[in-house]
Amino acid sequence: MTAPQVREVSEVTYTADEMMTVSAARALRDGMTCFVGIGLPSAAANLARATHAPDLVLIYESGTIGAKPTQLPLSIGDGILAETADAVISVPEIFNYWLQPGRIDVGFLGAAQIDKFGNINTTVIGGDYGKPKVRLPGAGGAPEIAASCREVIVVVRQSTRSFVERVDFVTSVGYGSGPGDRERLGLTGAGPQKIITDLGVLEPDPRTFEFTLTGLYPGVSAAAAKERTGWDLAVAAEPEIIAAPSPVELDALRSFSRESQ
Amino acid sequence: MAEIVSLDEAVERAIHDGDAVAMEGFTHLIPFAAGHEVIRQRRRDLTLIRMTPDLIYDQLIGAGCARKLIFSWGGNPGVGSLHRFRDAVEHAWPVPLEIEEHSHAGMANRYVAGASGLPFAVLRGYNGTGLETLNGGQESAPTIKPITCPFTGETLTAVSAIRPDVAVIHAQRADRSGNVQLWGITGVQKEAVLASQRSVVTVEEIVDDLDPRPGAVVLPAWTVSFVAVAPGGSHPSYAMGYSTRDNDYYVAWDAIARDRGTFTRWLDEQVYRVPAGQL
To answer: How close, in Å, is residue B104 to chain A by CA atoms?
Structure first.
C-alpha cells in the first residue's frame, strides 16, 4: 500500500487514490452497461453513477443487474446490491446469458500485475505455479469479462511490481503478445482500452497495441511514471493533463467512503 | 426424501472422510455453521469445491480438513488474502493442499453439466489464459479441452462436469416436509445440489407454509437428503430477510487468520470447545 500523497491544486486537496478513482469514474459514459469488479473499480463505477452517469447500469458477478447501492459494497454480493437491483439472477445465468454473448459495454477490472499488452495476472507471483512466492486469489470472473465485454478498463496502482514487462501468469488476456492475438484466440470484445493508475492514464498504441502513457494528473511528470513502470514505457508526444477532481466529485466520493465506514 | 435432523447428525451421516464436498453460496447464504460442524467432527482428506472459498474454506483448510481445493476465486472479498489458504499453498501448513483452479464462468458451467447429467459443458472461455494450459494438460485428468461445434465448425471450450459426493447450502427456510426455499442472490446452489449425490441444507427456520417470494429457488424435498435448523447459520455471510452481511467480521478475520497461533486459538474457542448443537 502506498502512503497517501496529498496534492493541493486551486485550494482542493486530494489523494492520489482519489484522483485515480475520479479519473476512472470519468471513463464511464451515462447509460453504459458496466460489469464491475470489486475494490477500486466498484468505487469508481459507483462514483460515476453518483455524478455524471446516473443511468449507468452496474452489473456484479453475483447476478445483480442494475444495482443502485447508496453505500459502497465491501463484496460483490452485499445485500444492498440485491435489494436495489433491477434483476437478480443465478451465477450460471450471469456468465452464460449476459456476459458471454457480448451484451455488456464495459468490463471494469483490477489487477495485481499487468504487462505492456494489458494482460492481467491475479493468480501467482514468483516461483513456479506449484510453489509460488505469492499466491493471489485467482481468476474469478475476470478471464471472461476481459474476453467478452465490448471493451475493458483496468484500474490499478502503478509501481514496478505491478507494471511488468511480462506477467508471471496470464489470468486474463489483454492483447496477448501483440496485434492479431485477440482475433486468433477468438476473443469477441475489443480488449483493454485504458489502464487508469494513480499517476495517469495509459492507452494502447493503435498499431503495436503496446500501452502508452497518454494522460498525467496535475503535478505528475512523465519521468515519474516511467520510473514506476517495469518496462520501457512509451510516452505520447504531448500527454493530456487530466483535470483535478472537482469539489462535486470529491464530495460524492468522500460521502460514499464515510457511509461505508 | 429430506429428513429433518440436527446439524451434527446431518454432517455425521452425509459427509465422510475423503468425500468431495461443495459448500456453495455466492457471498450470500454461505453455510458457515455446517462448515464449523465439519471441522468439529474432524473430517479429513476432503476435496473441497467452491467458486469463492471465502472465510469458510479458509477455516476448513486451516483446520486440516482438506486434501484438495477446486475453486475460482480465493480471496477475502474487499479485504485481501485468505491467509490459511495461502499458508497451505505456499508452505503446506497444516497439510499440503492440491489445487485445481478455474474461472467463475468455467466453474458455473461445470456445475450446470453436473446438474444436467452431462459429462461436460460448453462455453466461450479460457482462450489464451494460463488456466487453459494448467487444466488442459495430461499430467492429471484434464478439465478443459477445445471442442468443435458440430454445426458451425467454431472452436469452443469444453469443461468437465463437477459431481460432488455432497452439496452443503444454507437457505432461508424449509417447510415441515423438507421442501427448501431460498431467495436473493442464489448463486449456484440449485446446480450444486442437483449435481451432488447427497445434500445437507441448513435453514433459518422451519415454517408451515412456504408462501411465494420473488425470484425464489425452491428445492423440492425429494431432491434434498437432510435439512437442519441453524438460525444465523450463514454468519458472517447473511440470509436476506433475516440478517445483514457482517462486513466488520470479514475485516477482523484478516488478523485472526494471518497468524497460525491466533487462528489455532480461534479454532479452539469458537469451534472445538463448542458443544454439538450449539454451533
So the answer is: 5
Total number of domains in chain A:
1
CA distance A239 to chain B (A): 32
For the record, the C-alpha cell of B240 comes out as 436476506
pLDDT of residue B82: 97
Closest approach of chain B CAs to the CA of A241, in angstroms? 31
Q: The domain spanning residue A223 has which CATH number? A: 3.40.1080.10
Burial of residue B18, with CB atoms counted within 10 A of its CB: 0-12 exposed, 13-18 middle, 19 or more buried: exposed
Closest CA to B30 of B163, B165, B168: B168
pLDDT tens sequence across A60-103: 999 999 999 988 888 889 999 999 999 999 999 999 999 999 99
Residue A34 lies in a domain: yes
End-to-end CA distance of chain B: 25
Domain-embedded: residue A49: yes
**B261, exposed or middle or buried, with CB in 10 Å at 0-12, 13-18, 19+?**
exposed
Q: Which of B96, B26, B24, B39 is nearest to B67 (CA)?
A: B96
Among chain B residues, CA nearest to A75: B77
CB contact under 8 A, A138 and B111: no
* Of residues B79, B126, B186, nearest to A90 (C-beta): B186
Contact B124 A82 (CB under 8 A): no
B127: nearest CB among A82, A100, A187 = A187
Q: Which domain holds residue A232?
A: 9-254
Q: Does the distance separating the beta carbons of A92 and B108 come in below 8 Å?
A: yes
A205 by Cβ neighbours in 10 Å (0-12 / 13-18 / 19+) ranks as middle
pTM higher than 0.90 for the full model?
yes
Domain boundaries, chain B: 3-102+163-272, 120-160
Phi then psi for residue A44, to 5 deg, are: -70, -40
Contact A143 B124 (CB under 8 A): no
ipTM of the complex: 0.95
Per residue in B62-85, pLDDT (tens digit) is 999 999 999 999 999 989 999 999
Chain B: nearest CA to A80, how far in angstroms? Answer: 9
| Beta-strand relationship, A120-121 and A113-114 | antiparallel
CATH for B3-102+163-272, options being 3.30.70.270, 3.40.1280.10, 3.20.20.10, 3.40.1080.10 = 3.40.1080.10
β A106-109/A113-114 pair status? unpaired
Which residues of chain B are within 8 Å of residue A172 when distances are taken between CB atoms?
129
Is A210 known to be catalytic? no
Does residue A214 sit in helix, strand or coil? strand
Chain A hits for B78, CB-CB cut-off 8 Å, are 38-39, 73-75
Residue A84 belongs to a domain = yes
Flag whether A1 is in a domain: no
Cα–Cα dist B204/A245, whole Å: 46
CA angle A59, B30, B178 (to 5 degrees): 110
Choice among A61, A144, A210, A249 that is catalytic: A61
Chain A residue with minimal CA distance to B127?
A185
Is A171 within 8 Å of B129 when comparing Cβ atoms?
Answer: yes
